[in-house]
Amino acid sequence: MKDKKTLVRGIILTLAAVGQIILAVALYDREANTDIINLGWVILWISSICWLPIFTFKKMGGVSKGQSYIHTTALVDRGIYAIVRHPQYLAGILMGMALPFISQHWLVAVPGGVVVYGAGPLGSLFTARLLEAGHDVSLLARGQRLADLKEFGLVLVDTQTGLETVAHPRLVERLAPEDAYDLVLVIMRKNRALEILPILATNRHTPNVLFLMNNAAGPGELVEALGAKRVLMGFPMAAGYRDGHVIRYLAGGRFGKNAPIPIGEVDGLITPRLQEIGRVLASMNGFEADLRPDMDAWLKTHVALVMPSLAPAMRAAGQDNVRMAHTRDAIVLAIRASREGFSVLRALGYPIVPKSVRLFERILEPILVWGFQKRLVDPRVRVAMLEHSEAAQDEIKHLTDEFFALKRKTTIRTPAMDHLYIYFDPASHPMPEGSAQLPLNWSFLWPVAGILLGILAIIWLLVAVIE
What we know:
Number of strands: 12
Shape: elongated
CATH architecture of the largest domain: 3-Layer(aba) Sandwich
Distance between the termini: 102 Å
Number of domains: 3
Radius of gyration: 30 Å
């Protein structure tokens, strides 16, 4: 029975080693860091040398003919065995170290945990949820935020339930070039993320960097800095703001469902690493993963829906969601600007995704205005839109400028977007509360009226013929 168990363990270990070798060969990247590759080859050669004594082990150990080399009858303490008790085990360990260095791919490497780069509202929320799910997670923080985390812990308050939780993640102050993680989650404003690209580029030991943030410009700058094989894109699907050392957040999908976090590869492929990262994100309470082949289009659609439209319309209403609900002109301009943004994306060949967003174009303008007026007074809107808008004016302006750069590549007219853009000027004055000078688009009534008149005419003719 003991020999059978030993055999089974040996088969499992052999299959694991062979699988690691196959992955290392299949995922070998000639453009990866050559110093690390060379180090891997050196370690692999050393491991090969450690295998050689196996041929003399049987003879020195008095192994009977036909028996495995492990069935020794004498203690072997000469040669390399005088230094290393089990050189073959050492060889296996060294090979396991060498192959990740050679391939530099996360599938071959031993897991090194997750670091969340950005200790703001959503970075803090994701850190706590990953920690709760049992992951090895570190939170990168600096300055006053780091001091608050050390003194109070990571304090979160759910704005819907009032529930307060406190977590104590591992804190790091920097991402050093030699640090090795499985995954870096960059959860911060787009303009701030661009500033840390040199730091991320210097660290070559972390193969996966997922940017969870708004992005209208696409992955170009990220790929240029880090390489396409390291970059993934997504969106955090939550909202929050900082209240002193406390993070107040809004999370969760509609009707009590999990919030789907969209993530995708730069090339749109659904890869094994994307699926694995999706499983990590889906382990967080209140979230699930949405693996998308169209992540760039998704992010551009989201920016068109919010940044050059709803965000400046909120500024036009004096940064007050209730005041905006009472200011019809601000709502009308926001709706028209979003639709203009969708036209820009279509002209550039981008689909409007997810499909549910397309309803925004099909619903009649007067009905949308009425819906916005009702929705804007919801307290959750203050967390989802107003608090973020007030804290991230620099990012909103940056993203709007990114979208305007896209717009300039087309011939699409955008009068509503152009009108709202003036409210990014700090010297601009808000609209008068209650402003309703812009006429609503009732043009849909003319086709309806034409159809009704046509039906009445047919009925009249039928009646005339019968008589």
